[in-house]
Design a protein that fits this description.
The complex is a heteropentamer of chains A (489), B (119), C (226), D (297) and E (614).
Chain A lengths: L4 H13 L14 H22 L2 E4 L10 E4 L1 H24 L5 H20 L3 H20 L4 H32 L4 H7 L6 H18 L7 H8 L2 H27 L5 H20 L4 H22 L2 H32 L10 H4 L1 H15 L6 H14 L3 H30 L13 H19 L2 H15 L1 H8 L2
Antiparallel strand pairs in A: 1-2
Chain C lengths: L1 H20 L10 H14 L4 H9 L1 H23 L14 H23 L8 H18 L7 H26 L20 H27 L1
Chain E lengths: L1 H22 L1 H21 L5 E8 L2 E7 L1 H24 L6 H20 L3 H19 L5 H31 L4 H7 L5 H19 L8 H7 L2 H11 L1 H15 L1 H5 L5 H22 L4 H21 L3 H32 L15 H15 L5 H15 L3 H26 L15 H19 L2 H13 L7 E2 L2 E2 L6 E2 H21 L3 E3 L25 H7 L6 H21 L6 H20 L5
Antiparallel strand pairs in E: 1-2, 3-4, 4-5
Helix pairs in contact in E: 1-2, 1-4, 2-3, 3-4, 3-10, 3-15, 3-19, 4-5, 5-6, 5-10, 6-8, 6-9, 8-11, 9-10, 9-14, 10-15, 11-14, 13-14, 13-18, 14-15, 14-18, 15-16, 15-17, 15-19, 15-20, 16-18, 16-19, 17-18, 17-19
The chains are: A mainly alpha (489), B mainly alpha (119), C mainly alpha (226), D mainly alpha (297), E mainly alpha (614).
């Protein structure tokens, strides 16, 4: 059996090795991330069937929790780790040719560290360890957003840093307060001591957690960094940030709310929060003329949708939310990757600059279209089953208020459809490109795009491949007692 | 008085945090904001340490025989605070490097003037 | 306006803090976990400094993350500051001979002190991070005292990476030996002696060197910029 | 026997319509002359005209020019078969009033198609006016028809005539208002003043007839005569209770004379004025009538 | 097996055509025609079959295909029109860009529509529905320029509709635990009235958008007029009919007539019929005012949809038969008209009614096609439109809906006006000089014209052929069988007997024709040799078809704007400005962002401590 610890150790050690590679080995540096992420993908996939039956608990240093740190490799963790390594793998292939500016070597190391952080967060069973990995994720994001040293990137990175660090500090305060209250850092142990969140002193850490993690997961009033950072980072980084990083924030939030606090009474509020995030995101994207900023705002909207689905709080709803997470990770990274080369060829991020790309870059354009369709939730793409599940789960609650919420959510989807179709029209049916500079993206960029397209269509047609892991993931989130039992066995 | 006695450290810790937050909320110079962030960090570190405080406690080091384990303070927060400090240092370094580059680009660090990335 | 508004917000927050804090006893006797560490620490890890045993053994994984964060900071710093095209360094007035000499004189001692700190991490207060910081302060002193002298960045980088890799390798050795990552597989030795506590001193050496190099590298990069 | 009678009816009723229609045309001119203190042409003048026209040379602009006029005349002839003429109604059970409404379309459409091929500006104007006028008077007309059908609960015109024979004329029933409205739109349906803008000789050289000569004009005249007959016959059937042939024809004559007086005493509307008028009073009255019918049913 | 193979051939063929198109355009054209024709044959073979088959599963829901008379009726209409459009496209699309893409989307849209009518559960229904929506969107936008706006309008409205449908479907699923149409029909009789109303309103929105019911019709005119003409034919004659299919499905297949008539105390039916009546009148007058041939036809499509919905929603056997028959007729004549206008656009390069004219001599077959189409559209006796309209009127009058009948009848007279305008402005009147060298439509265009014209006249004279099938459909929906013979319908309250009318017409025509032949000579003269009260009619200087109904426009134009369109534009504008406001939340000032974070925290604190919200 493969030990899940390798999922964290492999990219980490690769990141440590990269700076060692001197001038002679510099050329092969860029092949390390795909290799490592490919390895991670294989490991995650091979673990998945076992984990669905029984979660794997890994003791680090040989000490049982709550005394040592443990990894809790449940279905949820493996689902996230699969998606992380998948998207990481695909984006790193794309980066082979795409990343040419700046400190190339450092880019790859930072990239691997970002994914390490993400994987660490989803696998760990210790709240402070989660915080540490959370910081790895955040700091590497700051660095990656600004690493080109361009004006926009630096500005966004510094704003991101201030907000993100403030959020982290809030999380740390919450951890300190919880430690003061319970004297333990293990999530399962903590969960077993929290009977309910109705007491006032417990609610304050919860609020701190929501706010702190909300910054990274881009919940509405806390997401001001997102459009800046996503639009000014290189496209590969935008893809990773949008596809992975913010979802990890959601994961952390869900862990805290569902597993540690079991705070079911906050779920309706969470739903509202998701709804507002969705609407604000979609509205902001609606009249954007910068394509990457538009995609970034759309990410906000999608986060809103995921949070909304999580807030439904039923097994089906959470499955839907997780499905939507997968959808968004695949589709949004596809969108960012395709726009990456379009922008590169067009020399501008304006939507009007992409006009007529459908002819010059046919495959890329088709891929963009498919990504957009999928995000809107049109069949037969992956977005449809996820939307299907979310809608069903909301309606299954049989409540008038929920139907109103749902109507607003779907209104958001309509707005999303409107601006995506606008871009598709611009790409295909507007303007003629005379310049010969615009040509199809290189093979290294097309391969990941094609993989993503195949996945999007494949899962869209046959969503069953995901249902079992989604269902057990949702069960893991809902079944606090089971989690505690497994972790403290 | 009793309250002060019992809570003086908390007050100190949260006092620092609030001072930091106040700086973050009202200042516009990036360097000052970073300082504010550091102050918040310091406050949090202090808070973590407070959590393990024991009256008349000793350091959790068995450097000589005869130390009473009962009077030792909780060692965990101290381990945590070590990590937390290092993280603070890392963030600070990143922030400063970004500030340097920002100044090179804009010639100012006034964050109310640096808003090219908006809407 | 903004100030008053901020104050109002903060007062509300303070209210929340007050309600929360009033329930958390201050200066209470240790927690179950803490007590466990104090009671079993020496026995299980061989380090008399319980904090060290927690940092490197019970919660060693945190420390790996911590090291990673520092590594990340230096990487990020390098990435962000590396791409500057024209590094215009200000005119440097050569320092006086006394200053230079004193710095050169002090430098090895500082290094030695730093080494002492991280070598004795499991016995006395201190450890790899603290020692590393002291070592870096030595480099800082040299930069301040003799600004013309520079140390090759690549050597820092090599030490950083090697330190990190060493940490991981030790962890993996533990994995092969005991089945757990970061398992303390070496003999614990007699408590309160230098050669005790299994892998803890080894890791601390790696960390100490690594942190020293990293901090020095950060200082170096920042000085180069300004 | 029944079949023979049927065939006889099919042959006779168009003939009756033709004779009566042409007689009305002659009467029309004679009466107008008398009203205007002239002697006027003899009653038989239209027949003379027709014979003359059939022998003259006609000018054609193309296939549709011919086809349209044939279509319109055929349509008028068919329509006659749907209308009870004093007890004769050859096609009584083929769809009733609804079919009549539709078959009424043939004549204007045929004329319009034919005229369209003529490419004469006067024709275009005439057709446009004619169609607009049709749309204008159809609005109250449909209300009237609907009132009738929903009052008698049938779509068959024969049934309506029968029902009137049993009780009393529709004009003196709750359908009174409908009758009034029908009477108000009758001049428009007949194409006489004040609604003769489609064939205004002084303005647009008789509009749609301008390119017709010889047999074309003759066909057009016959069609005109038939439609005169049809419109009046419809009114008589629907509101004045039909009756056997002599009574029926007398009733028709009475209505026709009223129409001539209206023609003589009014100047011509402009087409907008006509539409405004038709969409105002007749529409309101017929609408009220329909509501009344709905209420009493 | 037959149903699956139909769908597999349809979808596979679409993609195969695209791939083949990359290699050879002739081969692609051939394949496209081959696939459409073979699909037509296959569907034809499926006549009379009924059955249900689960072919896959989606999220633990079985996806079911189902065929019965209703499905077959719609499927054959869809496939015929697509086949004819594809044949038409052979010459229409020659030399245009992205022809592969065009055929792909055309066939994909066709496959999706087949899927819709053949699906036996709501998941597959929805999936096919959405595929149809987006493939149609891509084709509507194909022509660039104004088409972009049209496509945008179309897709946004259709997404709104399908979101409503999604809620409806999922609500059904969450209530009954199944999405199989048959099973839902069995279960739905237990539903409460309010719930049923809720579901029906949701579906009404979804299908109303697609079928362009009045207040939500605004996407249709631009979309129909801007799409490539063969696809306009598909759009107008079948794509919008998917909404009709949906109505039949939800009102009769799911709810059943009894349940439907009692919905909301009958008010649902009342509102639906009222909307249908409005849908007839307003678009008819809007069509009158159009100067673009396709836009005129587009408005006319909306009006005809009004008739269909009116017939269907009235809830009687006769009405449903009339509605379904009118659906079928509208398929025939609207496809014909759009294709004909396409041919004219293809030959002359314009479809502006004010710059055409006199083409009758140049394109006689097209003229006959348009004539047949408009006659059907108006409902001239002996065309199929007459029979269906007659059925609808009759049921309206005999069931005491005089005001609805009024709307329907007035709509017909409006139809005459715009139909005549269409014929007159294109084919009659003077021939402009620049069109003197217009060539007749190519053979591949004539073929569809002829087929569809024959269909129109054939089913107008022998309405019993389709009516028998439609009668079977209505019988399967729980209505009584009517007494239908090949010439019409026999009933006490006014029968319809086409043979009488046909015979009378034939005789009258022959008689008149005879007189025409034997009476005086005729001289054929040129068009320009006309009399204008002594004034020369200058050639080429005037175009008498401009502003054909100007007097009327002067009156009605101030009142007959497309208010709904303006309303929606205002709404979109408001949304855009709102979105701009929302965007300004992200003002770029870091201090404000920090305030957001801390403020959010304190609001959370207040909401718990002060208000105890959760």
């Amino acid at each position: 059996m493969v030990n899940p610890i390798l999922l964290i150790i492999a990219p980490l050690s690769a990141a440590f090795i990269i700076p060692l590679m001197g001038y002679g080995l510099k050329r092969i540096v860029k092949f390390i991330p795909p290799l490592v992420m490919g390895f991670n993908l294989v490991v995650s996939l091979s673990l998945a069937p076992k984990v669905i039956k029984n979660p794997i608990i890994v003791f680090l240093g040989g000490f049982p929790p709550p005394f040592g740190i443990n990894l809790y490799v449940g279905p949820l963790g493996i689902l996230f780790s699969c998606v992380i390594s998948l998207v990481g793998f695909i984006v790193s292939i794309y980066a082979l040719n795409y990343i040419k500016q700046g400190a190339e070597q450092k880019y790859h190391a930072l990239y691997l560290l970002l994914l390490t952080g993400a994987t660490g967060i989803v696998l760990t069973g210790d709240i402070f360890n989660l915080f540490v990995f959370y910081e790895i994720l955040c700091i590497s994001s700051y660095a990656l957003v600004g690493y080109t040293g361009e004006k926009a990137g630096i500005e966004s990175a510094s704003k991101y840093l201030i907000q993100g660090s403030l959020g982290s500090s809030l999380i740390l305060i919450a951890i300190a307060l919880l430690y003061g209250k319970f004297g333990t850092l293990n999530m399962a142990d903590m969960a077993s001591r929290i009977d309910s969140v109705h007491t006032m002193e417990l609610f304050f850490p919860l609020v701190l957690f929501i706010t702190g993690m909300g910054v990274e997961s881009a919940i509405f009033p806390l997401n001001a960094w997102l459009p800046d950072a996503h639009s000014s980072a290189p496209s590969t980084i935008s893809a990773i940030l949008s596809g992975i990083a913010i979802k990890i924030g959601i994961y952390a939030l869900c862990r805290v709310i569902f597993t540690i606090f079991g705070a079911t009474d906050i779920l309706q509020f969470l739903m509202l929060l998701g709804l507002v995030t969705l609407l604000v995101g979609e509205f902001s994207a609606f009249s954007q003329d910068n394509i990457k900023r538009m995609l970034a705002y759309s990410s906000t909207g999608q986060i809103g949708l995921i949070v909304f689905a999580m807030g439904v709080g039923t097994q089906y709803g959470i499955s839907g939310g997780l499905f939507q997470f997968t959808t968004h990770a695949l589709s949004k990274s596809l969108l960012f990757l395709t726009t990456g080369y379009m922008i590169y060829r067009a020399g501008s991020m304006k939507i009007s600059a992409l006009e007529g790309m459908g002819k010059k870059m046919p495959l890329t354009s088709v891929a963009f279209t498919i990504g957009a369709f999928s995000l809107i939730g049109l069949p037969p793409f992956i977005g449809f089953p996820s939307k299907f599940m979310i809608v069903y789960s909301v309606l299954a609650r049989q409540s008038g208020l929920y139907i109103v919420f749902l109507a607003l959510v779907l209104a958001g989807t309509v707005i999303e459809g409107a601006y995506f179709f606008k871009v598709i029209q611009a790409i295909y049916f507007k303007g003629e490109r005379k310049d010969d500079r615009a040509k199809e993206a290189p093979l290294s960029a097309l391969i990941p795009v094609i993989i993503l397209v195949l996945l999007i269509i494949g899962i869209g047609i046959y969503p069953k491949v995901l249902t079992s892991i989604l269902d057990s993931s949702a069960a893991e989130l809902l079944d606090r007692i089971g989690y505690i039992k497994e972790a403290l066995k | 008085m009793d309250f002060l006695n019992n809570y003086i450290f908390y007050i100190g810790a949260f006092g620092l945090i609030f001072i930091g937050l106040y700086i973050l909320l009202t200042r516009k110079n990036l360097i000052k904001l970073i300082i504010g962030l550091s102050i918040v960090d310091t406050g949090v570190n202090l808070l973590i340490i407070c959590m393990g405080y024991l009256k008349n406690g000793t350091a959790p080091i068995f450097s000589r025989k005869g130390l009473n384990p009962e009077t030792m303070v909780d060692p965990t927060p101290q381990a945590l605070v070590l990590t937390s400090i290092v993280i603070g240092v890392a963030v600070l370094a990143m922030a400063l490097s970004l500030a340097i580059r920002l100044y090179q680009h804009y010639g100012t660090l006034d964050m109310r003037k640096i808003k090219e990335q908006k809407w | 306006m903004r100030k008053i508004f901020s104050l109002i917000i903060l007062i509300i927050l303070a209210l929340g803090v007050y309600i929360c804090i009033s329930e958390i006893p201050f200066g209470k006797p240790g927690t179950a976990v803490g007590n466990y560490y104090i009671e079993k620490g020496i026995e299980e890890t061989g380090a008399v400094n319980i904090v060290t045993s927690i940092v490197l053994n019970y919660r060693g994984f945190d420390t790996l993350g911590e090291v990673t964060i520092l590594f990340l900071a230096s990487l990020g710093l390098g990435a962000i500051l590396a791409t500057v095209q024209n590094k215009t360094r200000g005119v440097i007035t050569p320092p006086s001979l006394i200053l230079t000499t004193a710095c050169r004189f002090l430098f090895p001692f500082i290094l030695m002190f730093g080494a002492y700190i991280f070598l004795h991490g499991h016995l006395t207060p201190g450890g790899g991070f603290q020692g590393g910081a002291i070592i870096a302060s030595g480099f800082l002193l040299r930069y301040l005292g003799c600004p013309q002298k520079r140390i090759r960045q690549s050597s820092f980088v090599a030490i950083e990476s090697l330190g990190g890799i060493a940490f991981i390798i030790i962890g993996l050795l533990g994995f092969t030996a005991g089945g757990f990552f970061l398992f303390n597989f070496l003999p614990k030795g007699v408590a309160n002696t230098l050669l005790s506590a299994g892998i803890i001193p080894l890791i601390y050496i790696a960390i100490g060197l690594k942190v020293g190099a990293e901090m020095a590298g950060i200082i170096d990069t920042l000085i180069e910029e300004s | 026997m029944v079949t023979v009678m049927k065939i006889l009816e099919i042959i006779v009723s168009p003939l009756v319509a033709l004779i009566v229609g042409i007689f009305f045309l002659g009467l029309f001119r004679k009466m107008m002359a008398r009203i205007q203190w002239r002697y006027g042409p003899p009653l038989i003048q239209p027949v003379i005209d027709l014979v003359r026209l059939f022998n003259q040379r006609g000018f054609s602009h193309g296939a549709v020019f011919d086809l349209g006029i044939i279509l319109s005349l055929a349509g008028a002839l068919v329509l006659v078969l749907f209308i009870p003429i004093g007890g004769m109604c050859p096609l009584a059970n083929s769809g009733g009033l609804l079919v009549i409404l539709y078959v009424m379309l043939f004549a204007p459409i045929g004329i319009a198609l034919s005229g369209g091929e003529g490419a004469n500006p006067n024709i275009s104007i005439g057709i446009s006016r004619k169609l607009i006028l049709t749309l204008s008077y159809e609005v109250p007309f449909i209300f009237i028809i609907l009132s009738l059908m929903s009052y008698y609960q049938t779509i068959s015109i024969v049934e309506i005539v029968k029902a009137q024979a049993h009780y009393h004329w529709s004009l003196f029933s709750p359908l009174f208002l409908s009758g009034v409205a029908y009477f108000m739109i009758l001049p428009a349906m007949l194409g006489i003043r004040p609604f003769d803008m489609a064939s205004a000789p002084q303005e647009i050289s008789s509009g749609i007839d301008v390119e017709y000569g010889g047999k074309y004009l003759a066909f057009s005249q016959i069609e005109h005569a038939l439609s005169l007959f049809i419109v009046i016959a419809l009114f008589v059937n629907l509101f004045l209770g039909g009756g056997n042939l002599p009574v029926f024809l007398l009733k028709m004559l009475a209505v026709f004379v009223c129409g001539v007086f209206i023609h003589a005493s009014f100047p011509r509307f402009r087409i907008e004025q006509a539409t405004k008028y038709l969409w105002f009073w007749p529409t309101i009255i017929s609408f009220i009538s329909l509501i009344v019918i709905q209420l009493i049913r | 097996m037959l149903i699956q193979s139909i769908l597999i051939i349809a979808f596979g063929g679409a993609f195969l055509t695209y791939i083949l198109g990359k290699a050879s355009s002739a081969l692609r054209d051939f394949l496209a025609v081959l696939i459409s024709v073979s699909l037509t044959v296959l569907i034809f073979l499926a006549y009379g079959k009924t059955g249900e088959i689960a072919f896959a599963s989606f999220m633990n829901l079985p996806l079911v295909l189902r065929i019965n008379h209703l499905s077959w009726f719609f499927a054959i209409a869809i496939q015929t029109v697509t086949t004819l459009s594809v044949i038409f496209s052979l010459s229409y699309m020659k030399g245009k860009e992205r022809v592969d893409f065009y055929y792909l989307m055309m066939l994909l849209c066709n496959s999706a529509m087949l899927g819709i009518v053949l699906s036996g559960d709501f998941v597959s229904f929805y999936i096919f529905w959405e595929i149809m929506s987006w493939s149609a969107f891509l084709l509507i936008s194909y022509n660039r320029g104004g088409a972009l706006y049209a496509g945008m309008k179309y897709i946004v409205m259709s997404i709104i509709g399908s979101m409503c449908m999604l809620i409806g479907i999922m609500s059904l699923y969450s209530t009954y635990g199944t999405l199989n149409i048959r099973e839902i029909h069995d279960l739905i009789s237990t539903a409460s009235g309010e719930y049923l109303l809720f579901i029906s309103i949701l579906f009404l929105a979804a299908f109303g958008v697609k079928s362009a019911l009045w207040p939500i019709h605004v996407w249709l005119p631009p979309a129909h007029s801007e799409a490539p003409s063969p696809f306009s034919a598909v759009l107008s004659s079948i794509l919008i009919k998917m909404g009709i299919y949906g109505f039949v499905l939800i009102l009769y297949v799911i709810s059943g007539a009894a349940l439907y008539l009692g919905l909301g105390g009958g008010s649902f039916r009342y509102i639906l019929t009222l909307l249908a009546a409005i849908t007839i009148i307003i678009p008819t007058f809007n069509a009158l005012m159009q100067d673009d041939a396709k836009r005129l036809l587009a408005w006319s499509s909306i009006a005809q949809i009004g008739y269909i919905i009116l017939g269907i929603s009235i809830g009687t056997s006769l009405g449903l038969i009339g509605g379904l028959f009118h659906f079928f007729n509208h398929v025939a004549f609207k496809a014909l008209l759009f294709l004909a206008v396409g041919a004219i656009e293809y030959r002359t390069g314009t479809r502006d009614l004010n710059s055409l004219g006199g083409l009758i001599k140049k394109m006689p077959v097209t003229f006959i096609a348009v004539l047949a189409g408009t006659f059907g559209l108006i409902g001239i006796p002996l065309t199929n439109g007459f029979v269906s309209k007659w059925l609808i009127y009759k049921t309206l009058i005999l069931n005491n809906h005089p005001f609805l009948a009024f709307a329907a009848l007035v709509g017909t007279w409006g139809t005459i006006l715009y139909s005549y305008k269409l014929i007159h402005n294109i084919f009659l009147g003077q021939l402009p000089e620049n069109l003197e060298h217009t060539k007749p439509a190519p053979a591949s265009m004539k073929l569809p014209f002829i087929i569809l014209s024959v269909v129109i006249v054939l089913f107008g004279i022998l309405p019993g052929i389709p009516l028998k099938l439609i009668n079977l459909i209505t019988a399967s929906l729980g209505f009584d069988l009517l007494n239908i013979n090949i010439w019409g319908i026999a009933s006490e309250s006014g029968p319809l007997n086409i043979i009488n009318i046909f015979a009378a017409f034939a005789v009258a025509l022959i008689v008149v024709w005879f007189f025409f032949l034997i009476s005086g000579k005729k001289v054929v003269i040129s068009q320009d040799n006309s009399y204008a009260a002594g004034i020369d009619v200058p050639k080429g200087k005037y175009h008498y078809t401009v502003d054909f109904y100007n007097p009327m426009f002067r009156m009605i134009k101030p009142y007959f704007r497309d208010y709904m369109d303006e309303f929606y534009s205002q709404l979109v504008k408001a949304l855009a400005s709102l979105s701009d406001r929302v965007r300004r939340l992200y003002c770029g000032d870091l201090g404000v962002y920090v305030i957001y974070i801390v403020l959010f925290l304190s609001i959370l604190v207040i909401s718990k401590i002060g208000l105890n919200l959760w």
